[in-house]
């Protein structure tokens, strides 16, 4: 044990002498600071705009004056996607998902204004987030730090010296891993501490209730990630004859895992599972609403059926004699039919999304970078599944809003009158303001089982590899 | 001498392997570009077919009410991609190249996007531009980082120094062999791209190729400069890779953050809201209020009397018009902000070769923001044209059968990229010359022992 610590201490001292390593460490520190600051700026900017607009919209909805409920349903309202406090850390997909949606009767509008649309094409280089610094740059620092951990000892002959004094390979290896681990944690400590403080004090953001838990999980995920890369680097160094070879191998791995593979997988998933164009998608929905899902029950037939049904039910001869406005009932029925058609097509589309993302999840088994990238977004609530959850809840809200308008029209107005009937603020008040709470971390992590298996699996694999090589390495080797 | 250097160079397994790797990735990128073109063509064919069917169907259903018919009819404007777009897809996936608009309020329609998986948008396209900008520099680094240090570390440097007249000349020869292989790989890929994507051989393509060559040369010069510092292999490799990370990932990403925070675009939301309000609140107002504003915009329509009653198409389309008229200010402010972002980015890019090359690639391939903004302007003009064509017909309730509906085929927009050779090439040239001269000076002090 004492050997382990003295080896670790020696490693740290040596690492501190390397100018390149120290300067890279400082650069990473600075970058993390800058990234978090920039993330915070855009978070507060966006949140302010969104909160303001949301408030404004609510006031407008309430203060729209007396009008026919159906006109109000078309007047509709807007919902804006809130930013989570954790998006300061990982921007995730926020740049590429729409930020606002217009809610109206009959139509499911799309989310509009993906922030990427307002940028020059340079945005495709990516943005500097703390997550990017951690999962792209930190492995590089680790490589720079550890590639020569064994090769240098071999080249200078100190390895033989150590071994001859009875220190085992295992002690040396773990001593080195410990040393670099400590060095990195020291570098990251201020930020980890910062995140904990953030996590415990910012419970104010009501729509992401489990910030503290998410933060802890984030720290765990990144710790494992650092451990995987660190051990990998030490292992490669142990197995390589020269420092140059170790460096080349590690850098090749980094380029493959971090740059090439993620992009290739995304592009391949796009080729294997092609999305329809927006036009084809909408056309299919329109066709089904027009002609019926079976292609044989057009709108007029459906309306006729509904009319007959109601006339029978209430034992009257014409819709004028019904005790409520049939127009409202019919409109709600049409709305529900449209929703049903929309759900069918939306599900098909979602399936393609899921199949595309599934390829990324499968690839993450072979690539801890992908696993951590996905988990990091998931925990920061900036991932695909949180976005989908948000869209679903907005759509539910829209349906509720429209239903209330149609019901009111059915209950309180007479058949055939449109401009005469006006609803008032009491009805507008019945529609609650939209409020969103993200799913809990555990709910979201359900979608990321493969990714979790991946990082745990890699951690175990790398421990086994190191132990195996420690036992196999001969003292005379090198 | 050359022969020996070439032999020694290509005997290395790593060299052959990495060259094959980049060729394969290049091929994949060309394939992905081709897929993009096929998808675009399919979409264009689809919209052409759809528009025809859609107009025919609606005209046959709604045979007497022009106002109602035009409520539904959509007319498409297509931003035709060049074949060159396949090499550098840029923002073409985020921004839709097809607009299909009704003559109602435009602002609510023109920012519609196509269906995309945000995960894939975030990863971006593995297009040929990516291969050139990210991967070729890595190959340059792999080929050249140990140009000099290798000889020193293997102990062959003294032999070389004794046998050749000029050690500097020897190094330059070594470099040129490596450069030749890189250029060759680049040309092979371009040749394949030209054949596979049937790229027209024109000035734009020449500019694209010239820029690629310069960009590659920039990395060769940078790499050679690091070599000329005469440090060991590991130092060279680490430094070059750090430079690569800085130029290809860190700097562009930081500039993006800076630009985004410096020029926020709250107007994007307010335009949306304003256009909706501009139209919707008119339902609750006296018809005259709307009509007065409408006639002030289009005095030529004053001759149409407002029909009696609760509703008329004249009033309805005047309300729709108000959506655009009253959000114009926000819309223009938004455009200005976006232009500011574009300008700020390209100004910074002059000093960062990776960003500069990427932006010029997108300009040439017409996949830039600038191109999309022009397309949006064209969309407004197109929309106005359709509006003005149909307004009188609606207000007079002209006979639907009198209109030749067959004439409404999708229209095309294709902007010619203007090539600014000086601005495109000069920054890179300057960097190349700078690093080359600096290297030569460094190598003057070349020590043999």
Automatic annotation (TrEMBL), chain A:
Q: Where are the transmembrane segments?
A: 20-40, 128-150, 177-199, 211-238, 245-262, 447-468
Q: Which GO terms describe its molecular function?
A: ABC-type transporter activity
One Pfam assignment:
DUF3526
The protein depicted here goes by the name ABC-2 type transport system permease protein
Q: Does the keyword 4Fe-4S apply?
A: no
Alphabetized, the UniProt keywords read:
Membrane, Transmembrane, Transmembrane helix
Gene Ontology CC entries for this record:
plasma membrane
Question: Taxonomically, which superkingdom?
Answer: Bacteria
Keyword Coiled coil belongs to the record = no
Which species is the source of this protein? Fulvivirga imtechensis AK7
- Origin organism lineage: Bacteria, Pseudomonadati, Bacteroidota, Cytophagia, Cytophagales
From TrEMBL, chain B:
- List residues traversing the bilayer: 12-32, 128-148, 180-199, 205-227, 234-255, 425-443
InterPro entries linked to this entry: DUF3526
Pfam families in the record? ABC2_membrane_2, DUF3526
Task: Write out the entry's keywords from A to Z.
Answer: Membrane, Transmembrane, Transmembrane helix
Q: Does the keyword Transmembrane helix apply?
A: yes
Q: Note whether Oxidoreductase occurs among the keywords.
A: no
Protein name, per record: ABC-2 type transport system permease protein
Originating species: Fulvivirga imtechensis AK7
Show the taxonomic lineage: Bacteria, Pseudomonadati, Bacteroidota, Cytophagia, Cytophagales
